[in-house]
Amino acid sequence: MNFREVVIAVSIALMVLLLAYVIEAGGLGPIAPQRLRELAASYLLNTYNPWNIIQSAQSLEAVTAIVWDYRGIDTFFETSVLFISIVGVSLLFRGYREKAGISNRGLSEIVKTSTKILSPLILISGLSIAIHGHLTPGGGFQGGSFIAVLLVLLSVVFSLDFVVERGLSTSRLLVLRSLGLLGVLATSVALLVVGLLTGVNAYIFQNMVREGASLSMPPWFLDRPTGGTLLFFNVFEALAVAAGLSLAFIVLSLRREEVEEALEKGEWYE
Amino acid sequence: MSRALSYLAVFSMTYSFYIVFSGTTSLFSLVLGSLGSILVTVLVKSLLISRELSLSDIRRLTYLVLYYIYYMAVAEVRAHIDIAKIVLSRKINISPAIVKIPYYVETNYGMTLVAGSITNTPGTIVIQVDTGRKYFYVHWLVAKTFEPARAREDISTSFEKYSQKIFG
Asked: Contacts of residue A226 in chain B, CB cutoff 8 Å?
């Protein structure tokens, strides 16, 4: 240990100590404000509030309640934006044709076998994150991304051929993606449709009982709250995101043989 | 019958993992999770199972549990102590080398179990597998021999004995 190392050690220790002192003394301002703002307080108070259902989402997770209930329309358009971007990706590569038998090597047999064992576990944990989106951190988008990892793993470990042979073609993924989005749409207008049919007042994106609208999504399933629409939103969103991200990944990792025709066509358009 | 058993095997693996992962036994989670597990089972069954199971395979399951206990309580501990000795000694005495060792299990699952066991014990790592000629290439921190058969005795015989009985 020479003099240089001692100086470095002492100066790092000093830096940590001084920074800690500055933060402790409030030199950087309060780390978190002492008082909650009114808006935050009202969200925290009403996210799960069985005594004031008119303003409540009956969800234990404030973030999910804000994302899918209080600001539901905003989130709906966010989901649509992701959909449009995926439509854009497949439009950019239009004319490609998925083929099997181009390369079948992938990684070693050890990795393949381990991935096989992992695949149901990845799927079910993604589903679990989506199902519990209104109870714990997570939700449809997170669960869907989790599931999309499986396709990335399969196509790297086994090759894209394997995925296509198993029937996960991009056109089928697009159908799944659209089904998910239709599910989100159906959930958001479900109560409105029921209201129109029965002649009762109801809103778009209505979740629980609201002022002057007595319809409500089921607030409980067995022994846990469902957050009304939130459970359905999360499940459909998971389907939509999983299929959408998988589709984008496949399209971006197409092999040369598969896009050759598309490229020729592109030149022809020029 | 045997097909139903295969589905049941995949389902119970998926569902028990789900319960541990979600960390709750509320009815809400159990019911929705069982639906999800059924869906997942239908999707991945053909990927996981190449030979339909039969009731006599329960014997193999018992060996799997026995192997788990043996591996975690004996093999793993022994290897950790050996490596800890090397790490903590003042004069580090190692002879790292890559050795070739044969394996005789027939199924991919068996081979993966042996390879995983070798890699998971400190001091040895499988870096390549030749499934055609049935060889592992293993990086060995304290190589005692380069002779494939004798290296196998030192590294993987006990793993393979069980793996043979579990997966064949």
From this structure: 28
| Model pLDDT for residues B112-148, shown as the tens digit of each residue | 999 999 999 998 999 999 999 999 999 999 888 899 9
Q: Which residues of A touch B40 (CB under 8 A)?
A: 120, 123-124, 127
Give the residue from A124, A163, A234 with the most B CB atoms within 10 Å of its CB, the best one to mutate. Answer: A124
The residue segments making up the domain with residue A162 are 68-269
How confident is the model over A92-133, as pLDDT tens digits? Answer: 877 787 777 777 788 889 999 999 999 999 999 999 999 999
Q: By CA distance, what is A150's nearest residue in B?
A: B44
Give, for B127, the enclosing helix (H) or strand (E): strand B124-130
* Subunit contact A128:B21, Cβ cutoff 8 A: yes
Across the interface, of B28, B41, B44, the residue whose CB is closest to A224 is: B28
Tell whether A83 is covered by a domain.
Answer: yes
CB atoms within 10 A of CB B100: 16
- Other CB atoms within 10 Å distance of the CB of residue A259: 17
Per the CB < 8 A criterion, the answer to whether A93 and A259 are in contact is yes
CA dist list (Å): A184 to A52, A178, A228: 26, 10, 13
- Domain edges within chain B: 2-53, 56-167
